[in-house]
Write a structure and sequence with these properties.
One of its GO terms (biological process) is amino acid transport. Its main location: membrane. It comes from Asparagus officinalis. It is found in: Membrane. This is Amino acid transporter transmembrane domain-containing protein. With 467 residues, this protein is an all-alpha fold. It has a single domain, classed as Amino acid/polyamine transporter I (Up-down Bundle). It has 17 helices and no strands. Helix 5 packs parallel to helix 16. The longest helix is centred in the N-terminal third of the chain and has 37 residues. The N and C termini lie far apart (48 Å).
């Protein structure tokens, strides 16, 4: 864009103004209460205030740690192999940095629509339903369910891999196979879910999550650095034949956006104390500045140390004392249990509100037994799928393609267009439409690539593989 576009965008678009250093009003309600958001008369869905979970309860820094817990979960141990190996140094580094900037922008768009129409929209589907109508409400809910289901499945795969890695450090008899480890991981995740009634109740556990993240990130960083110094020169060529390289590259692009985005921003923003727009902005800036540094450190050093042979679970590549590697894998397992709960919370909130938890003590017999039955059933399905298809990198790519691209980039830009159509210049409308079309094309290409990867891996490893 020309040099005159940024000032115009800053002047006319409150989101761009904020990103360029401006100040957003404390509440969007004043600016948006009378806006026509484009839905047909009578077709819009007003946000439902009723929820079994806590709203407007958490300070911005707690929400910031929730977001940071997501991006620095044990998934970071896979980015050296799943992102850097297929992309190489230049595309990998530029891609990770650019994806962070684009993700910050897209998430800010969504966060600034939280109070559109003078009412808080505490669920992503509520926001989409208010802007588009009932059909989009249902489609958004479906996309979000797919996104969160696959993220949770990936977490259980990660937790199972961490347990299997610990076992292999001490025994070489192959008696404890990966599907068994995944089953154990699913059980532990369910037990944790029974005791944590809602997202705000994580409080102290977020501190543990941060500690566990630092443990495995620091250990992986130090051991990779040590190996990189001591090992002979590595090769960084992108592996595989030409056709495979193309599909692997497209899949890695989907993993880039998967790394930074939750697909549940309105649900997380619902927990923050007023002023919700300003506080959410603080949490997002925390996530995409301080929060991304550990991810960058372990991803780049891991790839530097092992090159094209980097494992999709970095702790399988490092060399070091057995007790240190045990500590790292144990920390990865425990942090994964906590992080999974964050991404399962929208489903829990829906089930608790619609069918289960009545008013009163969250730990009453009725409420606990409901969580055991319903959350246990949900995680059982997750665990079965994780054991059936334990291909972590492929799941990251497919999740990014099918749901992260549409929810975070396509829908965010189009919702902003609909909500602000009378206040945007032609240049701004063109910019948002370019985002809508471009990310839609990327989503289609990435979905094809991810499905191909899963089919290929399924032929190679068979179902319930012991990877």
């Amino acid at each position: 864009m020309g040099s005159d576009v940024a000032p115009r965008l800053a002047e006319e678009d409150p989101v761009t103004s904020l990103l360029l250093g401006g100040r957003e009003p404390d509440s969007m309600a004043e600016a948006t209460a009378t806006e026509d958001v484009g839905g047909e008369k009578g077709s819009r869905i007003e946000a439902a205030d009723e929820t079994a979970h806590q709203i407007s309860h958490d300070p911005w820094y707690q929400v910031g740690f929730v977001l940071t817990t997501g991006i620095n979960s044990a998934y970071v141990l896979g980015y050296s192999g799943s992102v850097m190996v297929p992309l190489g140094w230049v595309a990998g580094v530029v891609g990770l940095v650019l994806a962070a900037a684009i993700s910050l922008y897209a998430n800010t768009l969504v966060s600034h629509l939280h109070e559109i129409g003078g009412k808080r929209h505490i669920r992503y589907r509520d926001l989409a339903g208010h802007i588009y109508g009932r059909k989009m409400y249902a489609l958004t809910w479906g996309l979000q369910y797919v996104n969160l289901f696959m993220i949770n499945t990936g977490y259980i795969i990660l937790a199972g891999q961490a347990l299997k890695a610990i076992y292999v450090l001490y025994r070489d008899d192959d008696a404890l196979k990966l599907p068994y480890c995944i089953a154990i991981a699913g059980l532990v995740c369910a037990l944790f879910a029974f005791g944590i009634p809602h997202l705000s109740a994580l409080r102290l556990w977020l501190g543990f999550s941060t500690f566990f993240s630092l443990v495995y990130i620091i250990i992986a960083f130090v051991l990779s650095l040590k190996d990189g110094v001591n090992q002979p020169p590595r090769g960084y060529n992108i592996p595989g034949p030409h056709t495979s390289k193309i599909f692997s590259t497209i899949g890695a692009v989907a993993s880039l956006v998967f790394a930074y985005n939750t697909g549940m921003l309105p649900e997380i923003q619902a927990t923050v104390k007023p002023p919700v727009i300003r506080n959410m902005d603080k949490a997002l800036w925390f996530q995409f500045t301080v929060g991304v540094l550990p991810l960058y450190a372990v991803t780049f050093v891991g790839y530097w140390a092992y090159g094209s042979s980097t494992s999709t679970y970095l702790l399988n590549s490092v060399n070091g004392p057995v007790w240190v590697k045990t500590m790292a894998n144990a920390a990865a397992f425990l942090q994964t249990v906590i992080a999974l709960h964050i991404f399962a919370s929208p489903m829990y909130e829906y089930l608790d509100t619609q069918y289960g938890r009545g008013k009163g003590n969250a730990f009453s017999f009725h409420n606990v037994s409901f969580r055991v039955l319903v959350r246990g059933g949900y995680l059982t399905v997750n665990t079965f799928v994780a054991a059936l298809l334990p291909f972590l990198g492929d799941f990251m790519s497919l999740t990014g393609a099918l749901s992260t691209f549409p929810l975070t980039f396509v829908l965010a830009n189009h919702m902003y267009l609909k909500a602000k159509k009378n206040k945007l210049s032609a240049t701004q409308k063109t910019w948002h439409w370019l985002n809508v079309v471009g990310f839609s094309c990327l989503a289609i290409a990435a979905a094809i690539a991810a499905i191909r990867l899963i089919v290929v891996d399924s032929r190679t490893y068979h179902l319930f593989a012991d990877l």
